[in-house]
Amino acid sequence: MKVKDIKNIKSILATDCGSTTTKAILIQKIDGIFQLTHRGEAPTTVEEPFEDVTKGVINSIIELEELSGIKILDKNKIITPSLEDDLGIDIYISTSSAGGGLQMMVAGVVKSMTAESAQRAALGAGSIVMDVLASNDRRLFHEKVKRIRDLRPDMILLSGGIDGGTISHVVKLAEVLESANPKPRLGLEFKIPIIYAGNKNARNEIKDKLEKNTDLQIVDNIRPTLEKENLQPSRDKIHDLFMEHVMAQAPGYEKLMSWTDAPIMPTPGAVGEIIKQIATENKISVVGVDIGGATTDVFSVFKGIFNRTVSANLGMSYSICNVLAESGYDSIARWLPFEIDDIDLTNRVANKMIRPTTIPQSMEELIIEQSLAREALSLSFYQHKQFAVSLKGVQQERTISDAFRQSASGKTLVDMFELDLIVGSGGVLSHAPRRSQSFLMMVDSFKPLGITQIAVDSIFMMPQLGVLSSIHTNAALEVFERDCLVRLGSSVNPISKRKSGNFNLFEYEFNYENKKYSGLIKSNELKLIPVKYEAVKITLTPKNDVDLGNGYGQKIHTDIFGGEVGILFDGRLRQSNNQLIIPNKEKLKEWYDEVKVLNFDSKSNNITKKINL
């Protein structure tokens, strides 16, 4: 890093070069506190006719100059460090997902063990994992070779075997790579980077197979023992190679790298960094989601363990048809407070895929989009829970009761009762016409249990703050809390042994602004109470067959936080798989009305007139 004295930093310029838009933010230290002051954006210029990513960066910075009155550029170069208060900035940092981001393949001996660990390492570094090769994936040698040649990843991560174990299987995987002789997606004259993070005893054989025709890099084993997973060396090397190979070959990135004061990070990797910082600083469990046009990224930190997954076929524009195909008509239609046939719904979804940049022009379209978002988020989170698991293959000491319970390694780390905060990002969440719509979408999709805070990223600046956190943690967290995170409130969700009927669930009691609030929540009831973002002491008393996180029938005394929406007491019943039970459309309308998602006029039969914001 070029900056020598972090303490003297007063102004920070950060950009995020996306696939379509480059976003720039200006962070300034005012009265001793870092805060977002201005924001600009411009089309990304990595593709033809410009083929120079810096042009889009400069255009976004020009908008910042106009808004802030600070001269940042001099002959298309960034003035850094700052010379005066209105001349230059102290540091410049950037993230990027332009040009398709970082695309990788990973390989491991056993698909559910070393290959899965390699996948976790690659995903955590911000890559899109195109495929996972394994000795036991039932594909023939020539099929694996053809797959590698067809995909043409930016780099490959090879792992396999514990240190001191057998080497034959991982050497056979290296033979597959040797036969494929893969070429990188960018820069055909360069050798493709391959990172070896497997059994250290196989290093000489791996060198013999791969060193001649690839840029082979060797790091510590991802799984040195069955009981230990060591991902950080691989993630660090992925970041380094991303800069040296992928970014260096993309149009204009070599120039951009010469401007920045810290290494350019892949956008998803940067988002993961800020999620980890939030969890670490506040000592909480966090789930973050970024729902985009083509993919949905889910991040989580439970018990200090970070995981990231990419649902590459679940998005709100380019892959929106996949959302309908995977969830099905019935799953989408159940969220709609009006009737629609499957052909009409399919046509509307197809129109969105064909015209991905359009936004809803009517209330019907908005409701349909938010219903699709619920299913996209739900499916992505389900995939994340399947991937975010404890280490498989680990031998554990077991008691007799463990044996009868059939407990095993590979259990999901995602415990909804332990979850403290859900952070949502992406256009459908950040730019919903009402904050209450974002709030209920996340509650419906993630199905939290107990007491969970809900928040959204106001203008999607988590990537810039993520890379900033690597060099100035305090500045990143101050801006995140002050300007990025919009606290929506808290959701209180019980587990009930009964799945049908009308019955009492729990009582609540708290004081807020010199007023006492108390009541009884019944089955299939939603109750929203407007409370600002501050700690409020609450008492929750569940019935004997109801659990709010402290055990069935156990009372809870704790602090709860409101927000822009408030505190939601959610008495809606769920099936044994935690799926929400929606009795009928009239009940759905009641729920939407209570949370102020939509307003209904029962005198009108026309849905476009019935629903008003």
Summarize this, please?
Helices cover 34% and strands 24% of the residues.
Provide the fold topology.
Layout: E1 11-17, E2 21-30, E3 33-43, H1 53-68, E4 91-96, E5 103-108, H2 114-124, E6 128-134, H3 141-151, E7 155-158, H4 168-180, E8 193-196, H5 203-210, E9 215-218, H6 232-249, H7 253-259, E10 265-266, H8 267-282, E11 286-291, E12 296-302, E13 305-311, H9 320-327, H10 329-333, H11 342-354, H12 363-387, H13 400-405, E14 421-425, H14 427-430, H15 435-446, E15 450-457, H16 462-469, H17 473-484, E16 485-493, E17 495-496, E18 504-512, E19 515-522, E20 526-529, E21 535-542, E22 546-547, E23 556-561, E24 566-570, H18 585-594, H19 607-610
Helix pairs in contact: 2-6, 3-4, 4-5, 8-16, 9-12, 12-15, 16-17
